[in-house]
Amino acid sequence: MNRWLVIGLGNPGHQYVLTRHNVGFFVVDRLVARLGARHAGSFSTFELWSSVRPEGEIYLMKPTTFMNLSGHALEDFCDLCSVPMNQTLVVFDDVDLRLGTLRLRSSGSGGGHRGMNHIIEVLASKDIPRMRLGIDGPGRLDQALRDYVLETFDADEMDLLERVIDRSVQAVETWLREDFGRVMGKFNGPVSSDLGDKKPKLEKVSDEKGKINGEKPGTDPI
Known about the structure:
The chain has one domain: Peptidyl-tRNA hydrolase (Rossmann fold), CATH 3.40.50. The radius of gyration is 16 Å and the shape is globular. It is built from 6 helices and 8 strands; from the N terminus they run βαβββαββαβαααβ. By secondary structure, it is α/β, with parallel strands linked by helices.
């Protein structure tokens, strides 16, 4: 059976649930709901869900390593299950893109994102498809980047955030059926201003690792 993997980057723990740095988790949560995925297990470095569709078996993963060690989660998954790298998609935030902007690429550097950088380092390859969601940068010159990405989104940002998460899910569903280049052509750029009739709300998928409240030595939420 054909296999696909979507890994959303973020930090475990209730204090990080709705922070800007966790948009990768938001996308996985929405995919779990959209695909009717079942919880496939709690592993030492990740939580996993799976769904069987006409395209094949789709795995959805959230690392529980904290952001700076995300590569260990993907490495451990690869030891358990074989998924082609071109059928693996890493989803994460980008402070250099405006909120509401989606950017897919088939390869490249981590762009300064420590989670993606660690994945590239551990797998010794830059040929890893990724999808970045813009979260804007700090609005004040005196605000540290670390503080900014670990803040929750403002209330007036939520509508746009919801739209880009929904657009991300549409991009993933299209990626399961079409060439990655075509997906980039269709979805790269800002989302439409049309909200439609329904606005799905952010909702965290329940998992045991979400009960973690503190970092372990060597971990870093950015």
